[in-house]
Amino acid sequence: MVERLSNLIGIFQKPELNFAKNRAEHDDILGDAYEYLMRYFAQDSGKSKGQFYTPSEVSRIIAKVIGISPEQAKASTTAYDPTCGSGSLLLKVAAEAGERRITLEGQERDVTTAGLARMNMILHDFPTATIRSGNTLTSPKFMNREHLRTYDYVVANPPFSDKTWSTGLTPSDDPWQRFAWGEPPAKQGDYAYLLHIIRSMKSTAKGACILPHGVLFRGNAEAVIREKLVRSGILKGIIGLPANLFYGTGIPACILVLDKENAAGRKGIFMIDAAQGFMKDGNKNRLREQDIHRLVDTFRKQVDVPRYARLVPFDEIADPRNDFNLNLPRYIDTSEPEDIQDIDAHLNGGIPERDLEALADYWEVLPGVRAALFEPLRAGYVQLKMPVTEVNSAIFDHAEFAGFRTRVTERFEQWRQSSTPKLTGFDRDGRPKELIEALSETLLADLKRLPLLDPYDIYQHLMDYWAETMQDDCYLVGADGWTQGAQPREIVRIKNRDNKLVWPELHDYLIGKRRFKSDLIPAALLVERYFTAERDAIEALDNQIATLEQQLDERREEQGGEDGPLAEVIEGEGDRQKITAKAVKARLREIGKNPLYAEEREALQAYAELLDRQTRAKSERKTAQEALDAKIDAKYPKLGEAEIKTLVVDDKWMAHLSDAVRGELDRVSQTLTGRVRQLAERYEKPLPQLTEEVDRLAARVETHLKTMGLAWN
Questions:
Q1: What are the φ and ψ backbone dihedral angles of 519, each rounded to 5 degrees?
Q2: How far, in Å, CA of 96 to CA of 77, rounded?
Q3: For residue 295, which phi and psi values (nearest 5 degrees)?
Q4: pLDDT reported for residue 53
Q5: For a 10 Å CB count at each end of the chain, is N or C smaller?
Q6: Angular region, 244: left φ>0, alpha ψ -120 to 50, beta rest
Q7: What is the per-residue DSSP string for 499-536?
Q8: Are 90 and 157 within 8 A, CB to CB?
Q9: Contact 419, 439 (CB under 8 A)
Q10: What is the pLDDT of residues 287-340, one digit of tens each?
């Protein structure tokens, strides 16, 4: 495998080769496959080379925060990555530029990785991109005569804290004057790459660089460079990322966003601490779609968000207490507010109004709910009007919460109605990426105006479902059309690693011994719309079989003991005990009509009757299932395109998303209920009541001890 990949990469290591290739029909699927390839090389060799594979989520963030867009991109627009690795950052920048074919240039010191980058460019329809091999710091390959070439956009993920950056280079006599702000430490190359990036930017350019957090606070030579960077106004923003995102290192990183065009008028640095926004993915962390969108939206709008983001003025950064230290915790406190215990409430009872005011977002929407739950107790304290166990129903059944639920449902229904034509209009040769982008952005925009709900959570439900199901469905429709795409396929057995035949996936229904499955319209959807009577009949038989099974188990347990009437027909031991119809019949023949075995005969006959009923029910169930499977198989070819779209769009896609919205509504009520219950239970028993209860229990213990002739000292 590695040898084949190396041979393939070797083809692309020759920069003079200029391949022209049509865009792949599903370039994002190729991209996913390529990303797995990148991960393989990153994990296999990245650590030894000090280079860390950039996750596609981080590349997307960088491409979005630098501000490139189809409206701004021109044919003359240039983008550059001085440590391009596999080229993913450059390609994400190009993707943000839309259909405009901007100029891409990158340099990579590792020859094999440079070959990967060239292959990546060709796979993604950028055969004209220029990728060159060599050390960017000692031997930059992109020059305008004796000067470094400058670009409109510069992005990079350089090796973290490169300890050999100055090998072959005399920083004090740099031919390209990159270190005018100071010389980085010999064993810390982060600022060397950053200064190269700044030197490679045009006077109106934008840029972004991934670096370890140390660049924000390390002292000595780096502190001098950092102060000049801040005073220059070029540093537009700092984005702190979660730890353990990158392959090859587990340390957290940050993105420094640069902007030369607006440097003179800049009043501060916009900082985001996004370290808490991620999900676990195996042994690594991964940014979710909602994390990416929230981060990019916040950065573009430059709005302060408590415990997440704020614009920090230069005066605060330059204050002697900070002294140009850019460590994010100095400026953004991401910790949750402390849940303070109220001593007065513990002593005298009651729920502090201060704790209720912390739930102001809920009371703004549900003022009547607050009035229904609480009544004044004394100045600054309230008490519940009802038992704690009734809080949940009091909230969920309140008219105001019902009204809030209706508002959310109506807003989602509006989005559903506006989005359905886009979904039903999608057809063969459609573009799934454009479809999901339109759907997700309108969903987010429509739900942002709703209180209490986090629109990014609902957005994540859509993106998760897209990744799990909708994306595959759309590619199937795009390739085969609705009618053909809905037809079931036969599942065949394949050989596993042990060379044994196994079924690779679950089936929807059987025809004889043949197994079938429809990816676009699972049989359950077909049954739900067309064959509910047949399904209900089968469920009734399942219930009947379960009841008979329970009755058989009960009789075996009650009458199967050592001296029980069923003891002679029990086979097996422990949990594996069973009674078969064959054993029961044999025993009945053996005892015949002997009056001495009357009780046993009666028990055996009753058990045999239950077994017969169970056998008949199972036979009826099998016949009913076969009949239903035959109807399902016959129905698929008869489905019209309109029927298929209804089944897929309404019954499958939109039904799933509706359930997700209902789940978020339930979460709102559960969160409020949980906090109210917590406060009520915390202060339910004041100190005098607890003391009285302790005294009462102590007296009871003392009485019992005296009765036993013991003394309590």
A1: -75, -40
A2: 12
A3: -65, -50
A4: 63
A5: C
A6: left
A7: S-EE-SS--SEEETTEEEE-SSS-HHHHHHHH-HHHHH
A8: no
A9: yes
A10: 999 999 999 999 999 999 999 999 999 999 999 999 999 999 999 999 888 899
**pLDDT surpasses 90 at 618:** yes
Average pLDDT over residues 246-260: 88
- The tens digit of pLDDT for each residue in 267-280 reads 999 999 999 999 98
CB burial string 670-703: b at 16+ within 10 A, e below: eebbebbeebbebbeeeeeeeeeeeeeeeeeeee
Question: What does pTM read for this prediction?
Answer: 0.85
Phi-psi region of 382 (alpha: psi -120 to 50; beta: other; left: phi over 0): beta
Residue in this structure with the two tokens 């190396």, named with its chain if needed: 6
pLDDT tens-digit map of 379-406: 999 999 999 999 999 999 999 999 999 9
Q: What residue type is assigned to position 510 of the chain?
A: L
Cβ count near 284 (within 10 Å): 15
E-strand spans in 267-308? Answer: 268-273, 279-281, 284-286
DSSP secondary structure letters along 438-481: HHHHHHHHHHTTSSSS-HHHHHHHHHHHIIIIIHHHHHHHHHHH
Give pLDDT, residue 234: 97
pLDDT of the residue at 45: 40
Calculate mean pLDDT across residues 355-373: 95
What letters, b where the CB count within 10 A reaches 16 and e where it falls short, cover 117-143? bbbbbbbbbbeebbbbbebbbeebbbe
Q: Which residues pair with 156 in a beta bridge?
A: 209
Which sign, positive or negative, has the C-alpha torsion 408, 410, 411, 415?
positive
Q: Which residues face 239 on adjacent strands?
A: 255, 272
Query: For 244, which DSSP code?
Result: S
Please write the tens of the pLDDT for every residue from 3-43.
Answer: 444 544 454 444 443 333 333 334 444 444 455 455 544 44
Q: How far is CA 654 from the centre of its chain?
A: 20
Residue entry with tokens 């699972």:
522
- Mean of pLDDT over the chain: 89
Place of tokens 């107790």: 377
* C-alpha pair distances (Å), 440 with each of 278, 308, 353: 19, 23, 40
Confidence of residue 669 (pLDDT cuts 50, 70, 90): very high
Q: What is the DSSP string of 550-566?
A: HHHHHHHHHH-STTSTT
Q: Give the separation between CA 309 and CA 332, rounded to whole angstroms.
A: 7
Return the minimum-mean-pLDDT range out of 461-475, 519-533, 575-589.
Answer: 575-589
CA distance 428 to 678: 54
Q: Residue length, the chain?
A: 713
For residue 155, what is the enclosing H or E element?
A: strand 151-156
Which pLDDT score is estimated for 329?
95
The secondary element (H helix, E strand) that includes residue 286 is strand 284-286
- Residue 99 pLDDT grade (very low, low, confident, very high; cuts 50, 70, 90): confident
Neighbours of 100 (CB within 10 A): 15
Give the end-to-end CA distance of the chain in Å, rounded to a whole number: 80
The SS3 of residue 645 is helix
Cα radius of gyration rounded to whole Å, the chain: 35
